[in-house]
Write a structure and sequence with these properties.
11 helices, single chain, 2 domains, two-stranded antiparallel sheet, alpha/beta, 8 strands, six-stranded parallel beta sheet
């Protein structure tokens, strides 16, 4: 494929960070689901995918999230116990059983969950290829504080022309404002920019609201028919740019 990518109209590729370029291992959802299964909760693949879709929706500045923050405060113990209750419901628990297990599930996550940050497989190679092909790259994250130093620890900072977090501009995906801030800073148009992220509700809907094309990174096949281009691994992205509607 070589330098032919330069001939495409797309000039700028923006990436989500968490869940897209890096992830936590073990995955928090899987750690939660496995423990729930030890109490007899149905954690078959169908139920896991359904609950994972709820997680994506919840954290996309959903009405439920905003309501919970108002009621329980911002991310203290009451908030997280209520979150465990909601996630058990998403797995298919009846409310009474979810209420019984919520405290234990939150205790388990607080005391026993120890995650390691890892790069998603193939990310450095993919970014190197895109840079070599002439694309300008950026990171657009819903984090509250700048993450340049964190990206440097991952060995990724030098790949990006822009790193922008929502807390810097007080606009959170799926709001369109954060995307417009990124476009202005990159001196890029909507037509020549795509956004790659793992959360359909925050990343793809947010990009579409801002007039951008979105590509969903969905390694576990959580979203069966997302209605957008999608990839299961990062090495698919350059090929997709070659073959799918980016002329």
């Amino acid at each position: 494929m070589g330098d032919s990518l330069r001939d495409r109209s797309i000039q700028v590729i923006l990436f989500d960070l968490d869940g897209t370029l890096r992830h936590s291992q073990p995955a928090p959802n899987d750690f939660f689901f496995d423990h729930a299964g030890s109490f007899g909760v149905n954690t078959c693949p169908h139920h896991r995918r359904r609950a994972a879709r709820w997680v994506h929706s919840y954290w996309a500045s959903s009405a439920q999230l905003l309501e919970d923050v108002e009621i329980f405060g911002e991310y203290g113990e009451p908030f997280w116990e209520n979150y465990a209750f909601r996630l058990l419901l998403a797995l298919g628990c009846v409310p009474s059983r979810a209420a019984e297990l919520a405290s234990e599930m939150q205790r388990h996550m607080r005391q026993d969950y120890q995650a390691v940050d890892e790069l998603v497989a193939g990310v450095p190679e993919m970014l190197h290829r895109l840079r070599r092909s002439g694309f300008r790259l950026g990171v657009l994250s819903n984090r509250e504080v700048p993450c340049d130093e964190y990206l440097a620890t991952l060995g990724l900072r030098d790949f990006f022309h822009l790193v922008l977090v929502a807390g810097e501009v007080d606009s959170w995906k799926p709001e369109s404002g954060i995307f417009f801030h990124a476009l202005r800073r990159m001196a890029a148009s909507q037509d020549e920019t795509i956004y790659v992220g793992d959360n359909y509700y925050a990343d793809i809907i947010g990009a579409q609201r801002a007039g951008l094309r979105g590509i969903l990174y969905d390694p576990q096949g959580i979203f069966d028919e997302p209605g957008c281009l999608s990839i299961r691994s990062m090495d698919e992205l350059p090929l997709l740019l070659e073959t799918e509607g980016f002329k």
